[in-house]
Each structure stands twice: as structure tokens, then as C-alpha cells.
């Protein structure tokens, strides 16, 4: 075998010694979008997760475990590389691993184990997408086996949001599936594949990585699981109607008007159309469904010859909100979106049913498994640390909080008592879980807590790399060859800031959008209508609230008609004081006033048309393509002192 050194771990457990003479196998189970609604965490009174619960009864349950990032792509980049988003620049789903210098220099977790002599087998969702650096890592890679089955829709689904625009609405459906539709779901296939691998014997120790898709949307599951839950008797998540009042604007936006929003806001549309309980039922049923698949894998392990020498790790990539803080889905820095089930069972090491409330994250996974397996550490630095001391003694001192990151300089720290959030603009949230377990009362501005914040703040990353692709520094230029950019992570770059757009167009002209940047709630656009340049600003009222996400528009239209057959430079400028000016070839053609952007435009900056399923920023109907010639459009934001 190719091992650099064999495992030589000696643990003192209950006064006796347990020593392993051969390297352990590892069963690595990742679940997608599962929050703390499992029985062993008491996250929801109606949860049915007997198999996750029995694994917790067998091993160590980390009751204060959190994701490194509340989004699929950066979370998976973090736990597979052992490096945090601030180190890699991977903050959002659009950030490409292969473009990250830190990741290119890192040995991903399964590659490192293969290099150290492990047989690596992978099936299901483990990466987000297919980074090139993941190619040929595994001896056997079964793929995703059908993925999330977004287009498999229950026969009785009413499609209540078909009249609304929203880039992710296609995934907001639920219901019980039967027959051929149920058979299309991937998780039973993944469980069967994993069970077959556990039934075989191998010459080398194995790393079997299993990635389940549910409870990720769509919230469909076989009817037998759907029928386990009575819609009318389910317990809705607790909600404080004044919860947003003490949040800074960045927290409010992330809660109710962030990435992939639905027209009018998820909370308003879901609750006013009467579907909160449907989504709650769909989520609980999806959790029960994936728990049953986990049970099949655990049953096979128990009956296999590998039972006594296999470490089992089970966790979710991040949490999921179902109405807390008026928030649906992931993409948040509160407990509902960061807290996860996280269990490790090491035969003859972990005490059955042991629990620890130390603040840990998925960044700790890589160094822990390296430590437990006895292989060499990877060449790259790891941002987590081994959990071995907590597995030996769940009451051991840990000495640092869990850290979660959502976009550059947006961080949350979690101890057994406190959650401390600091946003990129310096605003803060602080919650005392001893007295406020629902995180309803932000006490960050209470001076008596200054020492607590100061002590915790030492754990914030001192340096944050820019996002690879989900955020961009000013200025940015779009051309026909590079015609879009994403600004997914909520940042202060555009809020109450001047914005200048310079477009070089012609000699061919038409009506249409030259550039639009925005999501469902705010943005700006430069376009041509009836042959005349126009500049539009879209905003939502302040203070931001869940039931006021209906944007207003300020539109500035030139009196000048563009001259066909000639190139023009059109400039639209929004000053910090609200003055808006349009110029054509250096001559002012219109002036007015508008409100600067009140929240971050978390959408696509698109050249030449309105992005699919986005609201129009100006007075036009999407996609409103510009069919003339565009040489380039440059956008500058910030940096003006008027």
C-alpha cells in the first residue's frame, strides 16, 4: 500500500485503551440543505429522522455545528479543501473553483486521501457543478445519478407562482410522487449504489463519499413520506413580527430581498397565497425521505465486514430557512441557515450518545479525518482544526467560535451562547442564546456587550479575498464577448453611492436595453426607447420590510433622438445627492433627480437585454433586446465625494 505511515492512534476511552493497527475506512455522508430539523437536535417537533438519530446515539453529536458558508458551492469548496471562503474567493454559486489560486494550490480532501493510499469512491452530490480540479480524483465516480429532479413535478401541484417573475421559481414546488415520477428521484439510487460498495471487500482502506440531494428543492418526495405529515397539524416556525426592526439594512436585505428573490418577495407570496404549510410539509417529508436512504446505507454497513473499522461522518452542507425572519431558503447568517446536523462515529473511540456544544464548522472536517486516519497532512494550510480532542472528551475546552461567511467581509461567529454578525459595511448583530434562542433581539448596540464583541471579533478573518465571480470592484466593462457579470453577494458597493454608465454604441441602432443591472427589487438601466436614450433607477421603500418589496422607478429620458449611422457615447450619471444626468457625446441632454440605491442589486449585470425572469428596471417589457451594435459599456460605482 501507498501509505506514508499507518495509523497509530491511542485513545483513552472510559478508562480503557483502544488502539487501531490498520487504517480505518471512512463512510462520508453529505446531505444537501438540511437544517437542524432532526430529532436528535430537537430542531422541529414534527421531524421524523430515526436513522440520523440512531447514528447520533452511536457516536458524537456536535450540537453547535455550523456551515462555513450558507450556500452550496462555497460550503463544498470549504469542506473539500479545508480552506475558508475568505482564503479561496469562493463565496457564491457562481464562483469557479478552477479560477481560485488557493484552490489550485490545494489538494482536495478526496485527492489527498487517494494519494495516501485510500480507495476513493464517490456518488451523488459532493461538488457543486463539475470543477476541472475534481476530475479523476476518485477510483470510481458514479456521478449525481439524476441530480435534484427539478422538472419532476407532482400531479396535483397547483403551480401558484406561475404569474410571478423570479429566477429560481422553477424549483419552488412540492408534493408526493408516485410510480415513474418517484422512480426518477436520485437518492434511492445513490443509497443502493453506496450499499453495494459497502457489501464488497477491498485490499486498501476506502473512502466512500455519498452525497444525497434532498431536502434541497424541489420539495418533492415519494408519496409514502409525503403522507406521513398532516399539513394542518404541523408546527410553523416561530416568527416575531418585529424581528427586522433592529437589523441593519444588510441583514434585512439578506433576510427578505437577497439572491434569487421572487417578485414581491418570497415571504409575501408564499404566505398570502396560503402555501407556507405546503412548503413546511414538503421540507419535513424530504428530510424523512433522505433519512430513510441514510438508514439503508447504515444498515448495510452494520451487516458488512467493515462495521468495526469504519469511521462514519454525517453532515449537511448548510441550513435552510422556512419563514424565520421572513426568510426562505439558505443565504443567511442566522442559526436557521447556518446550523447543521453533524455526527462522527469512530468505533471504539466515540462514546455512544455523546454530545458537545463547542462551536465547530465543516472546515474542521478535513483536518479531523486526516488526524483520525493517521495519514500525512496535506501541503496546503487548513483553516479548520482537528476535532479529535472533542471526540475523546466532548467536554474538552475548544477555545474558538464557529465561523460562517456569506460574501466578502460578511461573517458570523457562534459560541454556545452568542451569535455575533458583522456585515461588510461594519454594521452588527449580536444575539444572546441564553436569553434569546430565536435570535429576535439584536443587542449589538448595548454598550455592556462591547467586551463580548471585542473578544469575539478577534476571530474574524483579517484579510478577505475578493469574490472570484460573484462580486466585482469598480469599474467594470461589458462587451459583446463578455456580456454579463453576477453581483450575488450582498455588499455595500452600490448603496447610497454614485453610479456612472458609459456606453459606446452604433453605427447600427435600435430600441432596447444597453445595460441592466438588478434583481427583483432594485437596480439601474441604460436603454434606448423611441430612438432616445433613457436612464432608470429602481428602488424599494425604506426601511426595508417584507410587505413593501414593490419597487418604484425614476426614469430620465432624453429629448435628443440618436443619429443613425454614427457612433455615440452615452453617459448616465447618478450623483450621491440624487442628481441624474444624461449626456450624448459630451453634451447634456437631460437632468433630473432620483434616489440612490437603497439596497444592493443582487442580480445579473447584463449587456443588451433584460436577464431572464428579472423585473424590468425601466419602462419596457423584457427581454427588450438592443439589436444595434454595442462596442462596450463601462460602469463605475462609488468614489465620488459630492
Folded structure, characterized:
The chain has 642 residues and is of the alpha+beta class. The chain has 2 domains: 383 residues, Alkaline Phosphatase, subunit A, CATH 3.40.720.10; 162 residues, Jelly Rolls (Sandwich). It is built from 15 helices and 32 strands. Strands 7-6-9-3-11-14-4-15 form an 8-stranded mixed β-sheet, sandwiched between helices. It has a 6-stranded antiparallel β-sheet with strand order 21-32-23-28-29-30, with no helix packed on it. Strands 22-31-24-25-26-27 form a 6-stranded antiparallel β-sheet, with no helix packed on it. The radius of gyration is 26 Å and the shape is globular.
- Percent range of helical residues: 10-25%
Order the strands across the largest sheet as they lie in space.
Answer: 7-6-9-3-11-14-4-15
CATH class of the largest domain: Alpha Beta
Oligomerization state of this entry?
single chain
CATH architecture of the largest domain: 3-Layer(aba) Sandwich
Task: List the domain count as a whole number.
Answer: 2
**What is the fold named in CATH at topology level of the largest domain?**
Alkaline Phosphatase, subunit A
Query: Which structural class should the secondary elements be placed in?
Result: alpha+beta
* Percent strand: 15-25%
CATH superfamily of the largest domain: Alkaline Phosphatase, subunit A
The N- to C-terminal Cα distance equals 69 Å
> Mean of residue pLDDT?
94
Tally of contiguous helical segments: 15
Poorly predicted ranges (pLDDT <50, ≥5 residues)? 1-19
Amino acid at each position: 500500500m501507498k501509505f506514508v505511515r499507518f495509523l497509530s492512534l491511542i485513545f483513552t476511552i472510559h478508562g480503557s485503551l483502544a488502539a487501531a493497527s490498520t487504517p480505518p475506512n471512512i463512510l462520508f455522508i453529505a446531505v444537501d440543505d438540511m437544517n437542524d430539523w432532526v430529532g436528535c437536535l430537537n430542531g422541529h417537533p414534527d421531524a421524523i429522522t430515526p436513522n440520523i438519530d440512531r447514528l447520533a446515539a452511536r457516536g458524537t453529536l456536535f450540537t453547535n455545528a455550523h456551515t462555513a458558508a450558507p450556500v452550496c458551492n462555497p460550503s463544498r469548496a470549504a469542506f473539500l479543501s479545508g480552506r475558508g471562503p475568505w482564503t479561496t474567493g469562493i463565496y457564491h454559486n457562481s464562483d469557479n473553483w478552477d479560477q481560485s489560486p488557493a484552490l489550485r494550490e490545494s489538494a482536495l480532501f478526496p485527492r489527498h486521501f487517494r494519494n495516501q493510499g485510500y480507495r476513493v469512491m464517490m456518488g451523488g452530490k459532493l461538488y457543486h457543478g463539475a470543477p476541472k480540479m475534481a476530475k479523476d480524483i476518485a477510483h470510481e465516480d458514479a456521478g449525481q445519478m439524476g441530480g435534484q429532479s427539478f422538472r419532476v413535478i407532482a400531479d396535483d401541484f397547483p403551480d401558484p407562482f406561475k404569474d410571478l417573475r423570479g429566477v429560481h421559481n422553477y424549483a419552488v414546488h412540492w408534493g408526493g410522487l408516485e410510480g415513474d415520477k418517484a422512480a426518477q428521484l436520485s437518492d434511492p439510487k445513490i443509497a443502493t449504489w453506496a450499499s453495494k460498495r459497502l457489501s464488497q471487500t477491498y485490499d486498501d482502506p476506502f473512502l466512500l463519499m455519498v452525497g444525497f440531494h434532498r431536502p434541497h428543492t424541489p420539495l418533492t418526495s415519494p408519496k409514502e413520506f409525503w403522507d406521513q405529515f398532516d399539513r394542518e397539524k404541523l408546527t410553523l416556525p416561530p416568527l416575531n413580527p418585529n424581528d427586522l426592526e433592529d437589523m441593519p439594512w444588510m441583514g434585512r436585505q439578506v433576510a427578505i430581498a437577497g439572491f434569487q428573490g421572487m417578485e414581491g418577495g418570497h415571504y409575501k407570496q408564499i404566505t398570502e397565497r396560503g402555501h407556507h404549510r405546503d412548503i413546511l410539509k414538503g421540507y419535513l417529508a424530504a428530510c424523512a425521505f433522505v433519512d430513510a436512504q441514510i438508514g439503508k446505507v447504515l444498515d448495510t454497513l452494520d451487516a458488512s465486514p467493515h462495521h468495526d473499522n469504519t469511521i462514519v461522518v454525517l453532515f449537511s452542507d448548510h441550513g435552510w430557512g422556512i419563514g424565520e425572519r421572513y426568510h426562505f431558503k439558505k443565504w443567511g447568517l442566522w442559526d436557521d441557515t447556518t446550523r447543521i446536523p453533524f455526527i462522527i462515529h469512530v468505533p471504539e473511540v466515540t462514546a455512544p450518545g455523546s454530545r458537545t456544544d463547542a462551536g465547530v464548522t465543516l472546515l474542521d472536517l478535513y483536518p479531523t479525518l486526516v488526524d483520525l486516519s493517521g495519514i500525512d497532512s496535506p501541503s496546503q494550510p487548513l483553516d479548520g482544526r482537528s476535532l479529535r480532542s472533542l471526540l475523546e472528551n466532548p467536554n474538552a475546552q475548544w477555545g474558538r467560535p464557529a465561523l460562517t461567511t456569506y460574501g466578502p467581509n460578511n461573517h458570523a461567529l457562534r459560541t454556545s451562547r452568542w451569535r455575533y454578525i458583522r456585515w461588510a459595511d461594519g454594521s452588527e448583530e449580536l444575539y444572546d442564546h441564553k436569553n434569546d434562542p430565536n435570535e429576535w433581539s439584536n443587542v449589538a448596540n448595548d454598550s455592556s456587550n462591547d467586551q463580548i464583541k471585542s473578544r469575539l471579533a478577534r476571530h474574524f478573518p483579517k484579510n478577505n479575498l475578493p469574490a472570484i465571480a460573484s462580486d466585482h470592484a469598480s469599474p467594470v466593462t461589458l462587451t459583446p464577448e463578455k456580456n454579463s457579470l453576477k453581483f450575488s453577494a450582498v455588499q455595500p458597493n452600490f448603496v447610497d453611492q454614485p453610479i456612472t454608465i458609459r456606453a459606446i454604441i452604433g453605427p447600427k441602432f435600435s430600441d432596447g436595453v444597453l445595460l441592466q443591472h438588478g434583481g427583483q427589487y432594485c437596480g439601474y438601466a441604460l436603454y434606448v426607447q423611441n430612438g432616445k436614450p433613457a436612464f432608470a433607477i429602481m428602488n424599494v421603500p425604506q426601511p426595508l420590510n417584507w410587505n413593501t418589496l414593490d419597487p418604484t422607478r425614476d426614469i430620465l429620458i432624453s429629448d435628443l433622438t440618436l443619429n443613425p449611422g454614427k457612433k455615440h457615447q452615452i453617459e448616465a450619471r447618478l450623483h450621491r445627492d440624487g442628481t441624474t444626468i444624461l449626456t450624448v457625446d459630451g453634451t447634456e441632454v437631460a437632468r433630473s433627480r432620483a434616489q440612490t440605491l437603497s439596497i444592493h442589486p443582487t442580480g445579473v449585470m447584463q449587456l443588451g437585454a433584460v436577464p431572464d425572469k428579472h423585473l424590468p428596471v425601466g419602462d419596457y417589457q423584457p427581454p427588450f433586446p438592443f439589436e444595434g451594435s454595442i462596442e462596450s459599456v463601462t460602469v463605475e460605482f462609488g468614489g465620488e465625494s459630492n
